[in-house]
Specification:
Elements: E1 2-7, H1 16-30, E2 34-39, H2 46-52, E3 55-58, H3 71-85, E4 93-97, H4 104-113, E5 117-121, H5 131-137, E6 142-145, H6 148-157, E7 164-166, H7 182-188, E8 197-201, H8 210-220, E9 228-232, H9 242-252, E10 259-263, H10 268-273, E11 277-280, H11 290-297, E12 302-305, H12 310-314, E13 322-323, H13 328-338, H14 341-344, H15 348-360, H16 362-379
Length: 382
């Protein structure tokens, strides 16, 4: 199978969406499938892509921007160049888009070359959509959603006609091993051995609920005066000064000496290993937070807002670890219930790893995606 993959940002500095596509394409290449990457922006993942892709081609964009009069010409130039440079001769060729925003260019190529188009729904359905993307969605033969909750949102939007199958995100367990020595790791991170360490890993955007997390942390600090809150990440959708707002908010609640802003980190595994709890306080309908899967695989409990795909990732087994979104009292109560697990329920770490490995092993997810792609090829264009 020849898969033409689209990625707008091949970068580790954005989020789980980009990491997931890299995982999927690398594994598909290892299974013998040819990969052609078409990307818009530069990024640090490109070196890895070049190690297993047949071709890597850069374009100026995947859609026409109404705010830039030059984008129509660039769009047509990119279309012409891709039609000439990409090998469409193999009948087992399809196009695989990582997000619906990037569909206009591949949808047009799909129609012109009569090859199937697959789109991964890693984002929720939008409240409004422009004409070019509305048309593009109707050209897709197969959708893949990262959660049942996200799938339901797209079905309710009435924007799509083709099948939507669910494949959760996955990780390789060997990449998120639990720590062999919590004592030495905490020394490296300059954390007290008796501290309760709460960690957030992700984008620092308003929709992520960080004010709720900091407020809840302030509420439990009298009970756990030696606690530390680690916040890893940087703003993406919001302005860079949002970090300063968060620092000022922590200072206002008089917890700033217990809150450490780490910035972007390349090794999230150690952040999970060194922590007692990972928190996902999202206000929006999180489609499928990789951080939940990664943290549980590393043997660290996750406390998450009851929104989007968080509910199905934790499942009935860990439903008590859910709290009501935007509710700091609810989050504080769940944190107090969870923080002492190392002494009260020391087997929890291994149980979490077993649960995550069984449900979210990357190789199982790759098999599911591979079968959907092959099935789409077999059906052809409708």
């Amino acid at each position: 199978m020849h898969i033409i993959v689209l990625e707008k940002y091949p970068s580790s500095k954005r989020g789980g969406q980009e990491r997931s596509l890299l995982d999927v394409t690398r594994q598909l290449a290892q299974r013998g499938h040819r990969i052609t990457l078409v990307h818009q922006n530069e990024g640090d993942f490109l070196e890895q892509y070049r190690s297993f892709c047949d071709r890597v081609i850069q374009v100026k964009g995947f859609a026409i921007s109404p705010r830039d009069g030059r984008s129509t010409l660039w769009f047509l130039q990119d279309l012409w160049r891709l039609l000439r440079q990409v090998d469409f001769g193999n009948q087992e060729t399809l196009i695989y888009a990582n997000q619906f925003y990037d569909l206009p260019l591949p949808a047009l190529i799909s129609r012109l070359k009569r090859i199937p188009l697959v789109c991964h729904f890693r984002l929720p359905a939008p409240q409004a959509i422009d004409i070019q993307r509305s048309w593009s969605l109707r050209q897709v033969q197969q959708f893949i959603s990262v959660s049942q909750a996200n799938r339901q949102g797209w079905l309710e939007s009435r924007l799509v006609r083709s099948p939507i199958d669910v494949v959760h995100n996955g990780v390789l367990p060997e990449q998120f091993e639990p720590s062999l020595s919590l004592v030495s790791l905490r020394e490296t991170w300059q954390l007290s051995q008796g501290a309760r360490v709460i960690t957030y890993v992700g984008r620092l955007d308003r929709r992520k609920g960080l004010e709720t997390l900091i407020t809840a942390f302030a509420k439990i600090l009298p009970t756990y005066p030696n606690s530390q809150l680690l916040i890893a990440g940087k703003p993406l959708l919001d302005e860079a000064t949002y970090v300063d707002e968060l620092r000022a908010f922590a200072q206002k609640l008089d917890v700033d000496s217990h809150v450490r802003f780490l910035g972007h980190i390349n090794n999230a595994r150690e952040a999970f290993q060194v922590s007692d709890v990972t928190v996902v306080p999202s206000q929006w309908a999180e489609p499928c937070a990789r951080v939940i899967i990664e943290s549980m695989t590393a043997g660290t409990p996750v406390v998450a807002s009851r929104s989007g795909g968080n509910v199905e990732l934790l499942g009935e087994t860990y439903a008590p670890h859910l709290f009501e979104a935007r509710n700091a009292d609810s989050l504080a109560a769940v944190l107090e219930m969870t923080l002492d697990w190392r002494s009260q329920r020391p087997e929890l770490g291994s149980e979490l790893r077993q649960y995550a490995t069984k449900r979210f092993h990357l190789l199982d997810k790759i098999t599911a995606i591979e079968q959907l792609l092959l099935g789409t090829l077999k059906r052809g264009l409708a």
